[in-house]
Fold:
Amino acid sequence: MQLSGASILAHLTLVWTFYNIVLAAAENVTIHNDNPSIIYSEGDWKFEDDYSSGATDHWSGDTGAWASFTFTGVAIYYSVHLYPWNIPAGGRFFLDGNSEGNIRLFDPRADDYADVGTIVWSRTGLENTQHTLKVQISDDFITLDTLV
Structure:
């Protein structure tokens, strides 16, 4: 079977288009905690910017505190500056309304607050559609640095 020039061009155009769609879907975007697309429960969250690394985060110790973020994509990562010692920091995570469980946001081996973020929770392999991540305080404190 011999393909015409127009047929080869059509196939190459289709492959190029598919390749670009796959590349666009695989792009990670970092959302910092001060991004207005993150919705925080009113008055419950504080902004922190005194890390020696220059990083920032939002945190709360208020019962009922929550934050939500709606995105379109195939994965999401939640990164925080882990609390030290056994300071009870944790969050209950929900993705698209389904419980993802309670996530510990502290490192019992650390003797100081972490200067760099640590990915403490992630989901990959999602459908490339709109999703909503919601986190609620489940311990004495909850914190949010970045979402990717």
Notes: The longest helix spans residues 5-25.
